[in-house]
Specification:
The complex is a heterodimer. By secondary structure, chain A is mostly beta strands. Helix content of chain A is 0%, strand content 48%. In chain A, the strands form 2 sheets. In chain A, strands 2, 4, 5, 6, 9, 10 and 11 form a 7-stranded mixed β-sheet that branches. Chain A has a 4-stranded antiparallel β-sheet with strand order 1-3-8-7, with no helix packed on it. By secondary structure, chain B is mostly beta strands. Chain B is built from no helices and 11 strands. In chain B, strands 2, 4, 5, 9, 10 and 11 form a 6-stranded mixed β-sheet that branches. Chain B has a 5-stranded antiparallel β-sheet with strand order 1-3-8-7-6, with no helix packed on it. The model of chain B has no long low-confidence stretch (mean pLDDT 88). The chains are: A mainly beta, B mainly beta. At the A-B interface, strand 4, strand 5, strand 9 and strand 10 of A face strand 4, strand 5, strand 9 and strand 10 of B.
Chain lengths: 114, 114
Amino acid sequence: DTGVSQDPRHKITKRGQNVTFRCDPISEHNRLYWYRQTLGQGPEFLTYFQNEAQLEKSRLLSDRFSAERPKGSFSTLEIQRTEQGDSAMYLCASSWGTGGNEQYFGPGTRLTVT
Amino acid sequence: GESVGLHLPTLSVQEGDNSIINCAYSNSASDYFIWYKQESGKGPQFIIDIRSNMDKRQGQRVTVLLNKTVKHLSLQIAATQPGDSAVYFCAENIQGGSQGNLIFGKGTKLSVKP
C-alpha cells in the first residue's frame, strides 16, 4: 500500500452542481478523516469515521455536506448545490487506533466552483 | 476559542543553518502533538510527533520540544536543506477525548536560501 489516495485530484464545477470525492485510506487503518483547507490556512476538520461508523459530523460546514464509508474501507464526501465559497482543497487522512494517533494525509482534491 | 497558533508566519534561513519553528497551543488538555510539512499542491506530510509525557523527541535531522508549562511546541531542523522549504504546521489532539481530529494552526512558511 503506497498511502492514502484521493480522486479526483482536481474538480472544476459550476455553482449549483453536486460533486463527490473519493478517499482510499491506508488499508489497515480503521479511522478516516476529512478536512478542508483554504489558501494560507491549516486544515480544518470536517468529519471522521471509525470503521464504517461516522463518529463526528457536527463540524460539517452545512447540511449540503455529507460523507459515507459504507464498508469501512473507502469513503466519499459529497457537496450538494455547490457554492463559490466551497472552493478549497479537500483532504483525507487515515490512522490506526482509537485515539489521536499519527494521521497520514492524501494529496487532496482541489475543488474550484465557478 | 481553543486553537493552535504560530509565532511567525514566515522564516528564511541559509542552507546549512539550523531552523527553529515555534508553535503555541491553548488547550491544556491536549496531550498529543504532530508536526507536518506541506509542499505546494500536496497534502501534509507527517514529520514527527510527541506525546505529553515527553518533553523532547528526536528524528532524522528533526527535534520536537514540548514545554507544557507555557504550552509551547517547537520544531528544530538541523542543517536545513533547500528541500526543507515548505509550510510547516503543528497540530494538537486530545487522545482521551471523543474526537480524533487534529486541530491545526495557520502554518509557518520556511524558505531556505542557497
